[in-house]
Amino acid sequence: MQNGRLVELSIIVPCLNENDNLPIILPKLANLILANSLNAELVILDDASTDDTYRLAERIMSQHTEIKWSLYQRHEPRRGYGAIMRFGLAHAIGRYAIPVSADDVDPIDVIPVFLEHMRNGADLVQCSRYSRPKDAETIPFKYKFYQTIYRALVKFLIGQEIRDSTYSFKMHNRILMMAVGLSSNRFSISPEITFKTLLTGGKIVYVPGSQGVRIYGISKFKFLREGPGFAWVLFRAALHRLGILWF
């Protein structure tokens, strides 16, 4: 189901059994769009949830007829966060896109700031949780430890210090990403977007921000499960720089 025309920004909300969180995050996003007069659409993706996610999203958004929005449901077996994101990016109609976690942990108030950077020539605006020490306080120690190692490997293999490439809360040039192609089926799509922007000569801007804490439900992200995918996209990026092309 879809309503809307060409827009500047697609705000994409992937959902997997987020029945408890949608009444919180969807009205917040609708209010953000209206309060800032954004030329934006809201794209809600239900990844074959087993709860009432789809019907609840439809009911909530039917109360916001002033918002351009669309709702899609995948019925095939789930393949992960990256797969549902690629599905959503293909259906989106915005020049730029930003994923927003359905569990209301992303600092969505900075979206207008991100958009201004994009209008001024950025190809990707990354929310960095490590620019200010206090912003990383909500991240569990083991994740910070793994991410420290990953950032060091990125600097060694790519030759640049890239802050927080694994955090999905980033605004990017959707058209550019559709042109070069995205292949990750899991959370590794997040650094893939960053690396491919960098390797195409794109401009990356970092904006500090802090991640919130999920109140309802269980996070789908498990670093030990996602780590191999993160390593793979970094390895491909390093090979690309050496002439063994990734895209």
Please provide the ordered H/E string of secondary-structure elements.
Answer: EHEHEHEHEHEHHEH
Annotated CATH topology: Spore Coat Polysaccharide Biosynthesis Protein SpsA, Chain A
Briefly note the structural class of the backbone.
alpha/beta
Q: Assign the CATH architecture.
A: Alpha-Beta Complex
Indicate the low-confidence ranges by residue numbers: none
CATH class: Alpha Beta
Give the quaternary arrangement of the chains: single chain
CATH superfamily: Spore Coat Polysaccharide Biosynthesis Protein SpsA, Chain A
Number of E-state strands: 7
Count, helices: 8
Rg (C-alpha, Å): 17 Å
Distance between the termini: 32 Å
Order of strands across the widest beta sheet? 3-2-1-4-6-5-7
Q: Domains counted in the coordinates: how many?
A: 1
Largest sheet: 7 strands, mixed
Average pLDDT confidence is 93
Estimate the helix proportion, in percent: 25-40%
Shape: globular
The proportion of residues in beta strands is 15-25%
Notes on the protein architecture:
With 247 residues, the protein is α/β, with parallel strands linked by helices. It has a single domain (7-241), classed as Alpha-Beta Complex (Spore Coat Polysaccharide Biosynthesis Protein SpsA, Chain A). 40% of the residues lie in helices and 17% in strands. The chain is built from eight helices and seven strands. Strands 3-2-1-4-6-5-7 form a seven-stranded mixed β-sheet, with helices on both faces. Strand 2, helix 2 and strand 3 (68-73) form a beta-alpha-beta unit. Helix 1 packs parallel to helix 2, helix 5 (141-158) runs parallel beside helix 8 (223-241) and helix 7 (189-199) packs parallel to helix 8 (223-241). The protein is globular and about 50 Å long. The relative contact order is 0.16. The model has no long low-confidence stretch (mean pLDDT 93).
